[in-house]
Amino acid sequence: MSRFWKITLLVVAAVVVLAVGARLLYGDGARKPGAAGDAAGDGQNKGPVSVTVVAATTQDVPVYAEALGTVTARNTVTVNPQVGGQLMSLNFREGEEVKKGQVLAQIDPRSLQASYDEATAAKRQNQALLATARVNYQRSSSPAYQQYVAKTDLDTQRNQVSQYEAAVAANDAAMRAAQVQLQFTRIIAPIDGIAGIRGVDVGNIVSTSSSIVTLTQIHPIYVAFNLPERQLAPVRQGQAKGKLAVAALDRGDAHVISGDGELDVIDNVISSDSGTFSARAIFANTDNALWPGQFVNVRLQLSTIGNGVVVPTQAVQRGPDGDYVYVVGADDTAQMRTVTQGVEVGDSHVQITGGLKAGERVVTEGQFRLKPGSKVTALKPGQAPPEPTEAELKAAQDKDKRGGPGGGGPH
Question: What is the pLDDT of residues 325-336, one digit of tens each?
Fold first, then answer.
């Protein structure tokens, strides 16, 4: 076979393949895509699309700064003995609250009591000697005896009085020191707080390095947290206007653990390593909901936006040109509208700062079936689409008989 006939056969085969493919794709007498009346074309013959529509509302929108925080006790005190001796008793229960001034433990006081008694006896002895010295000096310095007493002896008696007065004063100091040491045998709670696990058992010999118990003050209590550097200015501005409210939420942000907190202090330095600054909030914690060492999510309210435009979060879609919503007009026609998002409002709504006005209706469900200019049937949230009418059902059946959505039946 010559080369000419080979080329001719290849061309004929290609034409046959194209013809068969076109017949399989469109069928006999099928309308091409984009032809008049095609549902996939300009969409003019489509009915209204059922979508859920919600009107944009206005409300006061709180602006928050959020961070992970750590609960810390306002005061933590490790109780150590100030004198040594045998531990006689522990007068608290671990894990329970103790009051300031409460006796926590008792150390054997007998040796220190003996020191106090010894100082007391020495004072009485010197007081007696002082009394004798004073009587002798007064007698020797009286006019009746002064001519019989040498001046040197008179000076000696006067100095002896001063000496015993000093001795009595030293005894007073020794008694006070012994009394203080004796009081230290009763270990007193220095603050209100929760008693931890005891560090020593009754009967042991304790010293000043022994740890009896650690007390943590939780009324009120602190929550420490870090915020990014960019939020320093809003925090300081809000603090200048008044106290900033703080809430502590659980780790999953599911519920508020304590909502009565307020910002207490801002640290005076920004960390150059992390680009954050430290802050601390204070909570009354009357219900003991916060516990030292606990991790919480901190929500600090910086300000409030008055009459902010708010829509459900699912109404806002992301497109190549930014965020947009479908707005339904008075004629039930949906149009695409570019918007600017603000802050989140709770878990289900978002504030819109631009592109939308209060009262305008936005589509919250069914956006994927819309395009600009689509007619819609506006449904309320949770409302089911209306049942098709008999005429609509008959039209659909007739359409199926003619060959389905593509209109592939014969003309």
Answer: 999 999 999 999
